[in-house]
Amino acid sequence: MANKYITVAGAGSKDGSSWANAYDSASLEAALEGPSAGEYCYIDQGTYTIASDMTFDLQSGAIILATNDTANAIPTVLGTATIDGSGTAGVDIVIRGSAMVRGIIFKSGGSASAANITLSNDADTVSMFRNCTFNIVNSSGSSRCYIGSSGADRIEVETIGCTFLFGTTTQYISLNSRWTSIGDAFASSGSVPATLVGILARQPEMRFFGADMGALSGTLVTASGSARAYAELYGCKLHASVTIFNPASLGRGDVYLYDCDSGDVHYKFAHYNPCGSTVVSTSVYITADGATYDGTNRYSWLVSSTSLARPANPYKSPWVPVYRGTTGSVTPRLECLRKGSTTRYKDMQVWAEWLYQGTSGFPLAVYDNDRDAVMNPTGSDQAASSLTASDWTGEDGSSNDFFKLGPSGAITVQEIGTLAMRVCIAAASVTDVYVDPKIRV
């Protein structure tokens, strides 16, 4: 392997062939672009100053590692190195290619001029960054950290243990690709952006695992322009007042949260899209045998709609699944509470949809719903529940309505497998429907 070596001052012949002949900082681009697939560039700790735009076209399969061990040809200790453009206004940094980069602090140009950091803006690439820092040093509100490109397709980026820092509140991450973030920290120092991820083009996907977003009190994800976003968050720390998703209009995508919170609260779940949301309520629930998130503590889903929800484009909650290990006739239902009103919702306003193994000989699910069959604009009252206020905790005194969603009669399960139900809301601006996310039969 023809590994490359670089130190700030360089050494010997400065051809990068060894530590004794290391490239110097003036040859930074050649050093990082030199290794081919399976080869390494070892970059010694220190600050590598750049005074103009720099694009690093890394070769596919190359590995770039920062280290503080120049005594060994294969370093035994890793470290950090800084590629610093902050001393010059407007310096952009672009890192391209299907390579892995570890331990480098990237600083864009300083002052008030716009300067960006871009990760992987060329098509058909898969890039990985570990323990790196992406620091937009300047104070220009036009500066961005771009992940992917609005003009290129099939880009995947993974960041592990990285830090994203910003110079002013109007900067953000512009996502145009598939991005997996694992154990990253956002705005842990410096300015806190009003929006973390802005989507202006393409249909990007993002998945955050163990992200520290506790400083972000604004909006996590927004979608505008021609974009549609899809996001999942797992085990992330959030700010208590954060807005999860701020889509500009219909069709802007979905955001799911799993076990994410601002405090020591576990098992939280949520879903957001332009037509509504589903969030966990631990203050309203069926008292005796309601759903639990840990076998003991009970909860419900608060399913709400926005002003965009209509019969033609209702909000649809996530599916509630249950495994059926037996076949035969069942009548599944979801128990619901309308809190603060005794008026029953109509079956053209709120209804359920369900899937079940209703086909013999194949795992072909059968779909059905309890929406008004002829889609009568007025509809009919949903079915009354046998439960009352005494069965719920957190209901609104005497101002409640208890109803159930599901088939009016038995359905026949032909094969073992999953039975799933979800709640749909076509009425606009509904904020009072609590659902016990436990399918009862």
Describe the structure in your own words.
The structure is a single chain. By secondary structure, the chain is mainly beta. The protein folds into two domains: 4-308, Pectate Lyase C-like (3 Solenoid), CATH 2.160.20; 320-435, no CATH class. The chain is 1% helix and 41% strand. It contains one helix and 40 strands. The protein has a 17-stranded mixed sheet. Strands 4-7-10-13-16-19-21-23 form an eight-stranded parallel sheet. A six-stranded parallel sheet has the order 3-6-9-12-15-18, with no helix packed on it. A hairpin with a 2-residue loop joins strand 25 and strand 26 (276-281). It is elongated and about 85 Å long.
Distance between the termini: 65 Å
CATH topology assignment of the largest domain = Pectate Lyase C-like
Structural class: mainly beta
Any idea of the CATH class of the largest domain?
A: Mainly Beta
SS summary, helix count: 1
Low-confidence region ranges: none
> Main β-sheet, in a few words?
17 strands, mixed
Number of domains: 2
Please identify, by name, the CATH architecture of the largest domain.
3 Solenoid
* Total strands: 40
The helical percent reads under 10%
Mean pLDDT: 94
Shape descriptor: elongated
What does the radius of gyration come to? 27 Å
Quick gist of this model?
By secondary structure, the chain is mainly β.
Which SSEs are present, and which pair or pack?
Blueprint: E1 4-6, H1 28-33, E2 40-44, E3 46-49, E4 54-57, E5 63-67, E6 81-84, E7 93-96, E8 100-102, E9 104-107, E10 117-119, E11 125-130, E12 133-135, E13 144-148, E14 155-160, E15 163-166, E16 172-176, E17 178-182, E18 185-190, E19 195-199, E20 205-209, E21 219-223, E22 229-234, E23 243-247, E24 253-258, E25 269-273, E26 276-281, E27 285-286, E28 300-305, E29 315-316, E30 320-324, E31 328-330, E32 334-339, E33 350-356, E34 366-369, E35 383-384, E36 392-393, E37 400-405, E38 411-413, E39 417-425, E40 433-435
Parallel strand pairs: 1-2, 2-5, 3-6, 4-7, 5-8, 6-9, 7-10, 8-11, 9-12, 10-13, 11-14, 12-15, 13-16, 14-17, 15-18, 16-19, 17-20, 19-21, 20-22, 21-23, 22-24
Antiparallel strand pairs: 24-25, 25-26, 26-28, 27-36, 28-40, 29-39, 30-39, 31-38, 32-37, 32-40, 33-34, 33-39, 35-37
